[in-house]
Amino acid sequence: MSLLALEGVDIFYGDMQAVFGASLHLDAGETIAIIGANGAGKSTLLRAIIGLTPARRGRVVFDGHDIAGLRCDLAARRGIALVPEGRRLFSTLTVEENLLMGAARARPGPWTLDSVYALFPALREIRHQPASDISGGRQQMVAIGRALLTNPRLLLCDELSLGLAPKIISDIYACFADICWRGVSIILVEQDIVRARDSSNRLYCLLKGRVTLEGSSATVSLDDIRHAYFGDRRS
Amino acid sequence: MSYVEAVLNGLMVGGLYGLFGLGLALAFGIMRIVNVAHGEFVVLAAYFGMALFTMTPLPLPAVIVCVAAAAFVLGWLLQATVLNRVLGPNPIPAMVITIGLAIVVRNVLVKIFGADIHTINIGPLQEMGLQFFGMAIGVVPLTIFAIALVLFVGMHMLLHHTMIGRAFRAAADDFEILETLGFNRRRVYAAAMGVAVMLSAVAGLLLAMRSSFTPFSGVERLLIAFEVVIIGGLGSLRGCFFAGLFLGVVQVVGLKVVPNSRPLFGHLAFFVVLLLRQAGLSPLLAWRRK
After folding, report:
1. Measured distance CA(A59)–CA(A64) in Å, rounded
2. pTM as predicted
3. Which of A53, A162, B105, B275 sees the fewest Cβ atoms within 10 Å?
4. Is B124 contained in some domain?
5. Which CATH number is A78's domain given?
6. What CATH number is associated with residue B48?
7. What is the distance, to the nearest Å, from the Cα of residue B133 to the centroid of all Cα atoms in its chain?
8. What's the complex ipTM?
9. Integer angstrom CA distances of residue B240 from A22, B181, B229
10. Any B CB within 8 A of A128 CB
């Protein structure tokens, strides 16, 4: 059975529709990537899954229950966590206080402050610094650690690579094997298509709010992706 | 009263002014709510404390604890039942609600207690003083200052060393992310409003032992709270504390120079601060951008 299934989801910002009839599914232990251009609706889809921008129509089935319309904090307590675009750390809190916020309402599970510090050793040394004073790469580590400390079953990662140097992006993606190994399923939203394909089992492409491609990351060709990403220009 | 004594008395009143500002700043910083009824809560606490003290055999410390507890519940209920319904990017509905609430509280107080000037008479304790180098320092103002200081330090501990305090600060930074971590924003807000009203209520009760009040004193208290927040900066405990002390000292020393000046010199000092440091307004303006 799928851990998560979206069925015909429509999402609106006020009167403006951002996502049209999107369907996708994710098995437990799987990593999927959602790619697409700016404004394609990738982040919106993540916001709908965790309940920040509830889907207006369609079903969001998580672990056998329809959670469309469920309040965000309740969805979080069922085991969904978000690493938001732009990291969005609590800027007046220290690194460790940010992490503690993740742990405060956590479900039981393997992730503790110590295991997050083991995953990102750099954070232990700077744990008493204000979160606003540290580098972007380390902020991204804090954002991931904060989400992991809720002990999620499903981790939503929005544009991890945004504004970071390639070397740092590689370091951050390298930790995903560790995270998956502890039984967390992952949805990656990325603009970096190659990175998204290499890090996922399957991928979906969004174009103007619609799913235009679904396929196994190992077999889908860059041509198919280009086609789905930019729309049908050749025919 | 010498000038040194005036300064000391000003510090004691100023500690309470700082608490007025702190209560306003908490609601403002965490919920983005401008609580116009803030001053009325301060006065309501004074009346409630007076009623408890004169009509029940409770000793003064017990009265203070009762008022603090009642104020927390009041703030909690206000947020949980009313203000949580108008959360959103527009700050006006919450402001209008608190304006209406202020009018209601003021008129209920007139109906019950009349429009006369009251003060809380705590008996012979009022006159007790300690002699320092020939100056008389009242036991009561000294105790009041100590309580104000304890409340400020206590708030610092709450905000930095407890989970709910960290949640207050996190909610001020980014409430959406706090929700994605499993926190119910409405509960955090209700607790924050409870604490905010409690701080102001205790300060209002203590001030009522030092000065008189009527049902219409709320506006004056609100004004002081705003001045403290603007001088001290939003989201700064220390700023609120020192801004309160500054206003208190200026006002009491001014009273010594010109006995009829009432709070005039405090307001003038505020005006001067604004002229000297126009950036002082920025905390008030910055929150609208969010």
Report:
1. 11
2. 0.92
3. B275
4. no
5. 3.40.50.300
6. 1.10.3470
7. 33
8. 0.94
9. 51, 30, 6
10. no
